Structures are given as C-alpha cells and as structure tokens.
Amino acid sequence: DISDNTIKRICSIFGSLSAMEKRGVEFVSSKELAGYIGSTEYTVRKDISILGVTGYTRRGYEVSGLKKELECKLNLSKKKKACIVGLGRLGTALLDYEKFQEDGFEIVAGFDCSINRIERLNTHIEVFQISYLKDTIQQRSIELGIIAVPAKSAQEVADDLIEAGVKGILNFAPVKIGVPKHIIYLEMDFTNALRFIAARSSL
Amino acid sequence: DISDNTIKRICSIFGSLSAMEKRGVEFVSSKELAGYIGSTEYTVRKDISILGVTGYTRRGYEVSGLKKELECKLNLSKKKKACIVGLGRLGTALLDYEKFQEDGFEIVAGFDCSINRIERLNTHIEVFQISYLKDTIQQRSIELGIIAVPAKSAQEVADDLIEAGVKGILNFAPVKIGVPKHIIYLEMDFTNALRFIAARSSL
Ligand SMILES: NC(=O)c1ccc[n+]([C@@H]2O[C@H](COP(=O)([O-])OP(=O)(O)OC[C@H]3O[C@@H](n4cnc5c(N)ncnc54)[C@H](O)[C@@H]3O)[C@@H](O)[C@H]2O)c1
Ligand SMILES: NC(=O)c1ccc[n+]([C@@H]2O[C@H](COP(=O)([O-])OP(=O)(O)OC[C@H]3O[C@@H](n4cnc5c(N)ncnc54)[C@H](O)[C@@H]3O)[C@@H](O)[C@H]2O)c1
C-alpha cells in the first residue's frame, strides 16, 4: 500500500514535470526534481520506482515520457465528476473556476438549501435543492463532493455526501469534520500559505 | 540563509504542534512529527535545530514549549496587515473569512475597479476604488496583497501592489505572474488537492 505522503510527493513531481514540459525542457535529473518539490534525490528515485516506472538515463529522466507514465499510473487523465454544495459567494466562484476542467475534474451539479438562491443563479451548470443530493450523485456517478457551506453545516453536509456515495471530499469550510477511513478527505485552507509568508518575511 | 522548503516544513511542524496542543498532547517524538508532516526523523531534528531550538528529552519534544518557541522564531504571533484586490464573489467571500484573523493576518482594506461594486458592498472592512491602492497600502503599512481579480488583470494588479510596497502576494487567479526576487509569492490553487484525490482513489 502506498502512503498519502508518497502520493502527495508524486503529484508534486507530476506538477513540476507539466510545468517543465510547457517550458520545453527535455530532461531533468532527480536532484533538480528534488529541489523543485522540496524532497531529496534518494526519495524522488524511490517514489518514482514505487510506481514501477523506470527509464533513468545518463541525461536524467525524459520529461514528457515520465509525465505521461505518471499520468497513467495516477489515473489523472480520466475526467472525474464533482459537485459543489453551498452556492454562496465561494460556491458560485468555484462553479465558474475554469481550472477545474484542466485538472481532471468536471463540475456536473451544484446544491443549495435556499430556493431563493437557486432561482437567482445564472450558471451553465445545473443547480438543485439540497433534497435532491443523493439521487443526483447516484444518477450522475459523482465521485467528489466540494463543501462551501458555513462551518456549522459542514459536518451534516459531509455525512449526506458520504451516504450518497462520493469517494472524496474537499472541504472549504473552516472546521474539522469527521469522515470514515475509506473516504479521501482534504481541507482547503490557506493557513499554511499565510504562515509561510509571515515566516519568510521575518527570517 | 534558510531555504523556502525548510520554512514550509517548519510551518507544517508548527501546524501539527498547534493541533496536538488543542488535543492535550504533552510530548511528541521526532519520528511521530515526521509522520504527520511527511518528512523524515533526521530532517525534522535538523529543521528544528536550524532555528536554534533545543530541548529534546527522553520523552521527545515538549509540545507547548516547542510550539511557543517556533511561534516566536517564525514571528507568527505578530499580526500582519493584508488587503484584497478584486471584490467579486471570491474576494467578498475572503473579506468575511474569519480564519484570517486566527492565522496572524488582519484584512484592513479591499479594492475594486468597479464603483458600482464598491457602493453595493455591505462589509465591516473599508473598501476603496483601485486608484487609492498605493496611498492606502502606504498609510496603513499593509504587508500582504491578495489577488482575486480575473486572470487577465492579475499581472497588472501584482505590479501595482509591488510598487505600493507590499512584502508578499497570495494569488488566487489561475495564471502565473512574474515578481521580483525580494517579493514572497504564493499561488493559491487547489490543483494539487484535486490531483491527490484523483490519484488516491485509483491507487
Ligand atoms: N478556504 C477558503 O479559501 C475559504 C475562503 C472563503 C470562505 N470560506 C468558507 O466557505 C464557506 C462559504 O463561504 P461564503 O462566503 O460563500 O458563504 P455564503 O454565506 O455566501 O454562502 C453559503 C451558502 O451555503 C448555503 N447553505 C447553508 N447551509 C447549507 C446546507 N446545509 N446545505 C446546502 N447549502 C447550504 C447557503 O444557502 C449559502 O448560499 C464558509 O464556511 C467560509 O468560511 C473558505
Ligand atoms: N484559487 C481558487 O481557489 C479560486 C476559486 C475560484 C475563483 N478563483 C479565481 O479568482 C478570481 C476571481 O473570481 P470571482 O469568481 O470572484 O470573479 P468575479 O468576476 O466575481 O470578481 C472579479 C472582481 O475583480 C474586479 N476587477 C477586475 N479587474 C480588476 C482590476 N484591474 N483591479 C481591481 N479590481 C478588478 C471586478 O470588478 C470584480 O468585482 C478569478 O481569477 C478566478 O479564476 C480562484
């Protein structure tokens, strides 16, 4: 079994390779890759070999080839379906966020508990009242639920998403929620980003 | 000089210590800390000692003590001033985001290029037309600029923030912007979070 931390590092390697490919870089050494993602040369080679990927030449890894292999092993090229619960300011900003599509996810539905909010929204993505959550998730095989409701409703929304059958949850509400072990759960808060800026400006 | 990657790791250690303190944990080993943040035992000890912090006992690091020392060395306890440029859906959601205050930042101003948008906003934070950016940043000693404008305006806004004298920029627009070396720059996009969820669900 591959650990979460190993997967996060491999995703960062994939991110660096995509950026290099856009810049036209052909080869990259494990030392350079380690520098980009904040890891060590030894760990980069170990992480890549865990996925059964080989191909290190005298000039290093071949950027496009390695990127394609990682994309396939991580199953990043298959588009997955996602939905957003909570269509307030943040939720509607996320509905329009064009980068989702580039990263392998497709927003196929939005939900809110306020009928007034749903009727006033002008968006190309279909929006529903929260009572249609379970049926819509099952009918459209939605794998990822994105939580953009106030903190006090986040746990209840998470429970409903899990019961409806999602595989993963991305939580934007500033509150810790409990999920069963089989659910992939990430909090989207920029605490670490703010701390880094504060720390960097004083060291 | 301490590298960006080292600072990011130390900020993650600080984050883990705060969470442990809330749970009432008294001691933690470097091995446990390494597991929480995805690092190695050796690197955790090295990173902490770089800041000149000692105090490893037979039972491990003392959680509250180490947290306080890191908070002081990273200068996280002093509140820094921030502003948001772009008061659309995302920008107004950020104006109200109560977690900013907890993480050592205080939003003291918002800016937008649309007068209509500024007049309609009902918020406790003072909002200005974009032409007042430089004067307000200098008068209020604002150190961090947060970009929440459409991608096509992000570079121009970044240039204005830098000219006005900010130390750091947190960019939410999905576009790469160029900044001089002395500016601390971070992009806030959840590509890595989405990739991790996609990869974890298939491995
Ligand atoms: N992590 C970040 O980057 C970030 C940034 C800004 C805001 N936030 C957080 O995102 C959340 C949303 O913020 P916002 O500014 O959009 O708030 P908002 O009040 O504008 O929107 C919340 C929406 O959720 C709906 N809602 C409430 N309870 C619901 C439920 N049980 N089921 C379905 N819909 C429900 C409301 O009708 C409303 O439309 C908050 O928790 C906020 O703290 C996170
Ligand atoms: N990283 C993320 O998590 C995330 C999520 C959603 C949206 N976004 C991005 O955030 C940005 C804002 O999204 P939104 O949905 O709030 O858009 P929006 O259209 O609702 O708001 C944009 C605001 O910026 C203002 N503006 C435009 N040009 C400006 C300039 N030169 N100076 C000052 N103000 C200016 C507009 O008047 C408007 O009020 C977009 O770039 C979007 O792609 C990021």
Q: What are the key terms here?
A:
homodimer; 203 residues; Rossmann fold; three-stranded antiparallel beta sheet; 10 helices; binds nicotinamide-adenine-dinucleotide
Could you please describe the fold and organization of this structure?
2 copies of one chain form a homodimer. Chain A is of the alpha/beta class and 203 residues long. Chain A folds into 2 domains: 4-73, Arc Repressor Mutant, subunit A, CATH 1.10.10; 80-191, Rossmann fold, CATH 3.40.50.720. Helix content of chain A is 47%, strand content 18%. Chain A has 10 helices and 9 strands. Chain A has helices at residues 4-22, 30-37, 41-50, 63-73, 89-95, 99-102, 115-120, 133-139, 151-164, 191-200, and strands at 27-28, 56-57, 60-62, 80-85, 105-112, 127-129, 144-147, 168-171, 184-187. In chain A, the strands form 2 sheets. In chain A, strands 6-5-4-7-8-9 form a 6-stranded parallel beta sheet, sandwiched between helices. Chain A has a 3-stranded antiparallel beta sheet with strand order 1-3-2. The mean pLDDT of chain A is 92. The interface between A and B is large, with 56 and 54 residues. The structure holds nicotinamide-adenine-dinucleotide (2 copies).
Considering DSSP H and I runs of 4 or more, what fraction of the residues of chain A is helical? 40-55%
- Mean pLDDT across every amino acid position of chain A: 92
Largest Cβ-defined interface = A-B, 56 and 54 residues
Small molecules bound: nicotinamide-adenine-dinucleotide
Shape of chain A: elongated
Question: What value does the Rg of chain A take, in angstroms?
Answer: 20 Å
- Strand coverage percent of chain A: 15-25%
CATH topology of the largest domain in chain A: Rossmann fold
Number of helices of chain A: 10
CATH class of the largest domain in chain A: Alpha Beta
CATH architectural group of the largest domain in chain A? 3-Layer(aba) Sandwich
Order of helices and strands of chain A: HEHHEEHEHHEHEHEHEEH
Structural class of chain A: alpha/beta
> Spans of chain A of 5+ residues with little confidence (pLDDT < 50)?
none
Tell me the major beta sheet of chain A: 6 strands, parallel
At the fourth level of CATH, the homologous superfamily of the largest domain in chain A is: NAD(P)-binding Rossmann-like Domain
- Subunit organisation of the chains: homodimer
Q: Whole-Å distance between the termini of chain A?
A: 39 Å
Output the strand order for the largest sheet of chain A.
6-5-4-7-8-9
The overall number of domains of chain A is 2
